């Protein structure tokens, strides 16, 4: 297929080959892992939740998958109807770490810190 540098490789309704689509999909998944896993590693490392980090990573990936599925498939009026990877955000690190340090300062252990963090993550988006 001949094309100029300024032309698109694929048009709106074109379908790339399985090989090309697979490479693009793998690249997209690997790139999104960094943004999904890094906040979890920061939270676990700073708050000393070493043994709970694998659980936190699993939950971040699970919630990202469910959110992405809802965005892509449109459940009722919710979702864009296209693939929009949903993931964790660095914007909430201050709130999450603050809540974790508050619990830790009051003698709470990892279970109490995680319960508070999950509550903060649930309630902060609802307050907007």
From TrEMBL:
Task: Provide the protein name.
Answer: Xanthine permease
Q: Where in the cell is it found?
A: Membrane
Q: Which InterPro entries match?
A: NCS2
What is the organism of origin for this protein? Vibrio maritimus
Q: Does the keyword Transferase apply?
A: no
Q: What is its main location?
A: membrane
Q: What's a GO cellular component annotated to this UniProt protein?
A: plasma membrane
- Spell out where the chain crosses the membrane: 21-47, 53-70, 82-103
Annotated GO molecular function terms are:
xanthine transmembrane transporter activity
This protein's UniProt keywords: Membrane, Transmembrane, Transmembrane helix, Transport
Report the sequence similarity comment from the record: Belongs to the nucleobase:cation symporter-2 (NCS2) (TC 2.A.40) family.
- Give a yes or no for keyword Iron in this entry: no
Q: How does it sit in the membrane?
A: Multi-pass membrane protein
């Amino acid at each position: 297929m001949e094309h100029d540098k300024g032309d698109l490789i694929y048009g709106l309704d074109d379908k790339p080959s399985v090989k090309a689509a697979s490479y693009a999909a793998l690249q997209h998944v690997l790139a999104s892992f960094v943004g999904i896993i890094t906040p979890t590693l920061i939270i676990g490392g700073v708050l000393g939740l070493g043994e709970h980090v694998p659980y936190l990573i699993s939950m971040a990936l699970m919630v990202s998958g469910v959110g992405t599925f809802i965005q892509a498939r449109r459940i009722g009026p919710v979702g864009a109807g296209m693939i929009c990877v949903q993931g964790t955000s660095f914007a909430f690190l201050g709130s999450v770490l603050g809540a974790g340090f508050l619990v830790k300062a009051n003698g709470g252990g990892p279970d109490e810190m995680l319960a508070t963090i999950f509550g903060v993550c649930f309630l902060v988006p609802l307050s907007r």
